[in-house]
Specification:
The chain is 42% helix and 12% strand. The protein is of the alpha/beta class and 323 residues long. The protein has a domain of 223 residues: NAD(P)-binding Rossmann-like Domain (Rossmann fold, 3-Layer(aba) Sandwich), CATH 3.40.50.720. The chain has a 7-stranded parallel beta sheet with strand order 3-2-1-4-5-6-9, sandwiched between helices. α5 links the parallel β7 and β8. α1 packs across α6. GO terms for molecular function: isomerase activity. Keywords: Isomerase. It is an enzyme of class 5 (isomerase).
């Protein structure tokens, strides 16, 4: 069994990963900025420094781990408030990640799993599922920071001997999900008409428990050494299919309108949300053959099972409130 350090262990994905690791018999330490809110059985390490500035100095003398899974990040936001988004994302997602990697290497850690994003590669698939070796073309500050972190960590790994593994998930969903996925569930729950019926582009996504399982394999499987992996659910639904599946599990009816794509693009231009509309109507599928062939990994849950569990959480926590 291994000892795994998880940064961001009290976050959405962190909780699921810690449960998976503990369930498989591994020892887990969570590196967090705020005490509490960790899974039972996870050892807590609190470091309050900004962007892990003090992580090297505060690393506990007795802490010896085999692998670090770096989840902590400045995440993609809908309404950016920073005057220099690229600098803000880089400070956390590149500089902070490098500080953790360097501290880990100095303390004998052998493997560093960096949780990146498909946004480091592209916002669309240009007609075929994206592969790990496709030319990166990130479109926003978040994606650029994730790509820069991948490159910086890979270079550091080559120089230092640290085994760096990169994992690129698409949209992650599951209980406790926020942002656009939660807004979609809110809209379906309230019976709002949605202009999604004509969108036939397919988009990969991943259930949080599937992502946790993949990350656990990347943390402990020797065959993952120095690899970059795309991970996703087996299914890649259209947005319309996703809304209908959610409606079925929410026990509601999806009210989907067949609005032509041209009108959606026009609405995006008129409202200043062209990028958002482009992502909504565009295809984004991931080729996951590498992790399946290299590690023999398959998502343990189907998309339908993941959506069912997400809908059960929503009904129990949001169903009685005014959305």
């Amino acid at each position: 069994m291994s000892h795994v350090l998880v940064t961001g262990a009290n976050g959405f994905v962190g909780h699921a990963l810690c449960r998976a690791l503990l369930g498989a018999g591994h020892t887990v330490t969570g590196l967090v900025r705020r005490a509490g809110q960790l899974e039972s059985g996870v050892n807590e390490w609190v470091d309050v420094s900004t962007d892990f500035a003090d992580v090297g100095a505060t690393w506990p003398d007795a802490l010896q781990v085999d692998c670090v899974v770096h989840l902590a990040a400045r995440v993609h936001v809908m309404r950016e408030e920073s005057a220099d988004p690229d600098a803000a994302f880089r400070a956390t997602n590149v500089d902070g990640a490098l500080r953790v990697a360097r501290a880990a290497r100095r303390h004998g850690v052998r493997r560093f799993v960096f949780v990146s994003s498909v946004k480091a590669l592209a916002e669309g698939d240009s007609g075929r599922p994206l592969r790990e070796d496709d030319t990166p073309m990130p479109q926003d500050a978040y994606g650029r920071s994730k790509l820069a972190a991948e490159q910086a960590l890979s270079s550091y790994g080559e120089e230092s001997g640290l085994d760096v593994v990169i994992v690129r998930p698409p949209l992650v969903y599951g209980p406790q999900v926020r942002a656009n996925f939660l807004r979609l569930m809110d809209a379906v729950w309230k019976g709002l008409p949605l202009p999604l019926a004509s969108i036939d582009a397919r988009r990969s996504l991943i259930y949080v428990e599937n992502l946790a399982d993949a990350l656990m394999h990347c943390a402990v499987d020797p065959r993952a050494a120095h690899q970059c992996f795309h991970v996703a659910d087996a299914a890649a639904p259209t947005v319309a299919e996703l809304a209908r599946l959610l409606a079925r599990h929410l026990q509601k009816t999806a009210r989907l309108l067949p609005v032509p794509l041209g009108l959606l693009h026009l609405a995006g231009r008129l409202t200043g949300r062209s990028a958002h509309v482009d992502r909504l109507v565009g295809a984004l599928q991931l080729d996951t053959a590498r992790i399946r062939t290299t590690l023999g990994w398959q998502p343990p849950y189907s998309t339908d099972e993941g959506l069912a569990e997400t809908a059960r959480w929503y009904r129990s926590t949001h169903g009685g409130r005014a959305c």
